[in-house]
Amino acid sequence: MKKMIVLFLISLFMLESCSVNSEIIYHQDASSTSATDIDTREFMAEMKAMTPDSLKQNEFAEMDKLPTTWTSIYELEKQEGKLKTANPDTIRIMKKIFMKSKKENNQPSGFAFKMEYFTPEDYRALKNFTKEEKLPLDQNIFNSWDGKTLTIDTENFNLKNIEEALRTKTSKEESEKMEGMMTMFFKNIGTSLKFENKIKSITGKHDWLKQTDDYSVRIEYDLKTLYDTEAKLKNADQKIVIITE
């Protein structure tokens, strides 16, 4: 797991057009499933172009060892011999978070994270887990969902989890410049929220949130506005409530 996260973080520092796309599916039993896809194709092309042929075999050998099928972070840490916890709640959460590397034309093209059927109890345990393990997870997974009603806290329209993951790999000087770095690193960041039942009503508005069909809404982050303390949005309600049928 550590190797995969390190490679992801390196890709952010090397690339100025990284795309991150997330999807959260809300189930009728009050659980939710989320997935985050990180596209690093441009980074890999640039990295290979800068690496001498004599070093490519060694430099990219570790990437080829990363699993290309969904593997829990529990299994990844066991395989690396780095599983240090016996806490049952932590182990339960680790077994429900999956990661994999992606390939295109047999070449590395990105990474993906997935969390399946997380309950409100799981999310409480996840908050404790991420105090130690900094993962680039979508903040919107922590919104309140009871199986019919989703209450969105627009304070979660941020990139804090990615920022914290990056800070663990930066110098103090770089960390202080994080806001400026974020607008350079990312080209597109967005999250789709999907429901098993039709959307009945939406109360509250935000410039970045739009309904895309009867079952979905989409959040598209405006990074320039996000990091501009003087920027003003036309619609910026703190709470958005989506009720499904």
UniProtKB/TrEMBL annotation:
<keyword id="KW-0732">Signal</keyword>
<protein>
    <recommendedName>
        <fullName>Lipoprotein</fullName>
    </recommendedName>
</protein>
<feature type="signal peptide">
    <location>
        <begin position="1"/>
        <end position="22"/>
    </location>
</feature>
